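Recap from last week: sequence in, structure out.
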Amino acid sequence: MKKVFMTFAGILALQSMVYGQRYTDSQDSLKNVQLEQVVVSATRAGKNTPMTYTDISQPEIKKNNAARNIPILLQNIPSLVSYGEDGTGAGYSYMRIRGVDASRINVTLNGMPLNNPESQDVFWINLPDLSNSLQSIQIQRGVGTSTNGSGAFGASISLKTVGARSEAYGEASTSAGSYNTFTSSIAAGTGILKNGLSFDARFSRNTGEGYIRNGFIDHYNLFTSLSHYTDNQLIRLSYIKGKQRTGITWEGVDSTQIEKNGRRYNPAGEYKDEAGRRRYY
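Predicted structure tokens:
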């Protein structure tokens, strides 16, 4: 009887030790915290990305910009060749990167694609003076980051518009160049208000005659941005509008026409009236 009692007491003691160990473990375990989903996305390369790329900051953009379109602005980038039709860089302009034409160059503005869905080109003439509204540009030479898809076979160009300033501001500028080229702009912003809201707007106009005949330009650009800042998020609504009137300049000339009519000769829109005099549409 004594042996049975001792055995029963031992079982109870062992059970108490196990229960106490479980209770201690439950008390010592770390608290489980469920985290919210985090999504990381990017269209720009960094220092650890295995590709060649070039970053252009806002001061560099302003230094090299003179009412010129993006392809002419980027003409000094390695492996990039650009040209304009009117001779000033403000009219129709094109570029190639590593020999690949614009239909295989992926262009994004704040992460949104700008390539035309039909031709895959970007018609920079429809976004005049866009460079003055940019904060930075990145050119990725080669296939590019995977987020850009198959359209980035030749290269990728990432454009980022300017953000809000901490203080309210207002500015205006005007400049003049060769061949009666003029550019004027006005910009203003509220700065970041106490409620976190910010509004910025910029309007510009570019006019000029161009180097070749009928290479005139008359371009308008409007950029507005409404932002809301908090401690952990930023919401921004941007509106960009471009309006352009540009002369036809894409017809080429041979050496005979240049010798006869001069280097600035352009046959586009040319006709003769009843008296045989040369006229232009």
